[in-house]
Amino acid sequence: MKTRIFLLLISSTLTLIFTSCSDMRVDVQPAPEVGVHPEGIINPKSSNFHGVLIQNINWKMNECQNCHAADYSGGITGASCLTCHTQPAGPEACNTCHGVFNNPNIIAPNKGAHYKHLYTASSGKSVECIACHIVPEQFKSVGHIDDSKGAEINFGSIALTETNEPGTQDYDASLSLFTPVPTYNKTSQTCSNTYCHGYFKNGNTENAVSFTVGSNGAKCGSCHGDAATGNPLPKTSAQGGTHPNVTSCNACHSGVVDLVNGNWVISDPTKHINGLLNIFGQERDY
Ligand code: HEC
Ligand code: HEC
Ligand code: HEC
Ligand code: HEC
Ligand code: HEC
Ligand code: HEC
């Protein structure tokens, strides 16, 4: 396919130099019945569908622009992409590849980390793309499409939140500064060393969470407290920490948690895992 397009490109360029556009299709190639593309170019069910062709050339749409014009309006082909791709950026609109055709919202595939963070998040602040990826401004922004297949993980500021910062109200000189160095393991699909999952003051700094089905990453006690019993009480002096050894969480963290049928539940997810300590009705850097 690649070679074919390439040859066609050369031939159509040569043809353009020596003849007029209207002769383009008859000159070098035998007059094609179905045009330059194999049949199925606009049939989403065909293996020749143009979306598939683009994927096969690692999304290098400049190869299409060579004939269909830089602005995709058709150029020498007379076949515009914009009749169907009606967003201002044409086929480069984010939703063309990340979501529903012609719905301008970006929708990431509902699987893996996305499943829990974007679509079924119930215990914490909703997580935005930028928490885990560099979000390109445009399709052609540097770093977006590269030669290594698949998405890159680049943690944003929330995962990097430092805690026990000197000068903050709750600073404890007996503990050092907690500086997360978040890492993502592509093979095991596991995140470790993130603020969000426990790398913070009195938290479970060793916690590594996997995004495979059945993962217990959202269970009370997994990020702070005891993962085995589910008790969320952060490390007290008995475990080398500084959190008060009192289990009635909502006495001090009211508005974040509630006791329901003997279990602590998050009553306001916007205040939980937001990078700030919610205590005594205040929101503090800590
Ligand atoms: C060598 C020039 C050339 C290149 C390169 C090229 N096309 Fe085309 N394309 C054409 C021509 C000419 C037509 C109109 C005739 C036809 O349908 O074959 C066309 C038609 C189409 C159509 C059908 C449009 C319609 O309204 O029916 C689609 C879709 C399309 N091209 C997508 C692509 C994509 C995607 C790429 C890049 C992977 C690409 N083309 C690369 C020349 C080219
Ligand atoms: C006749 C309408 C039509 C034309 C013309 C058209 N497209 Fe598409 N294109 C679609 C539809 C519909 C989809 C989504 C198919 C789906 O979701 O199954 C799509 C999907 C795509 C995708 C997404 C591929 C993926 O796998 O996510 C890209 C990229 C794309 N088109 C680029 C182009 C380019 C470049 C052109 C012009 C060269 C073009 N399209 C012309 C209808 C069109
Ligand atoms: C909590 C972290 C997290 C958030 C938030 C997140 N992603 Fe991802 N994303 C991942 C991980 C992990 C992968 C899998 C990377 C791998 O192993 O290849 C991934 C993969 C992807 C892929 C490749 C999908 C595939 O099928 O290969 C795309 C595209 C993507 N993300 C876009 C987005 C967009 C757009 C958003 C926001 C709407 C978003 N992500 C939000 C963690 C995240
Ligand atoms: C023509 C298809 C296409 C379009 C249009 C597109 N993307 Fe992507 N995007 C991809 C692919 C493919 C990947 C996976 C990265 C790779 O394979 O190198 C990706 C990856 C991503 C990721 C994960 C981080 C990364 O770079 O790996 C984010 C976030 C993202 N895209 C957002 C956007 C946004 C925002 C837009 C609009 C400005 C956009 N994309 C437009 C195909 C597209
Ligand atoms: C995914 C990791 C994670 C899980 C699971 C988790 N927490 Fe948290 N929790 C945090 C982080 C991070 C903080 C630090 C403060 C912040 O950013 O909101 C925190 C803080 C708290 C606080 C202090 C108030 C606040 O938000 O600042 C309470 C109370 C709390 N969690 C209760 C719970 C309870 C109850 C559960 C189980 C329903 C739970 N947590 C499960 C990560 C988690
Ligand atoms: C008597 C008041 C009080 C109660 C009750 C309390 N906390 Fe805290 N909590 C604090 C104070 C004070 C801090 C900040 C000081 C510190 O870091 O030790 C804090 C901080 C936290 C943090 C951030 C990490 C840390 O230690 O700085 C988490 C998470 C947390 N509490 C969860 C809980 C959970 C879950 C419960 C219930 C099992 C609970 N707290 C009960 C007073 C309380």
Automatic annotation (TrEMBL):
Transmembrane segments: none annotated. It comes from the Bacteria. Residues 1-25 form the signal peptide. Pfam families: GSu_C4xC__C2xCH (PF09698). Keywords: Signal. This is Cytochrome c family protein. It comes from Ignavibacterium album (strain DSM 19864 / JCM 16511 / NBRC 101810 / Mat9-16).
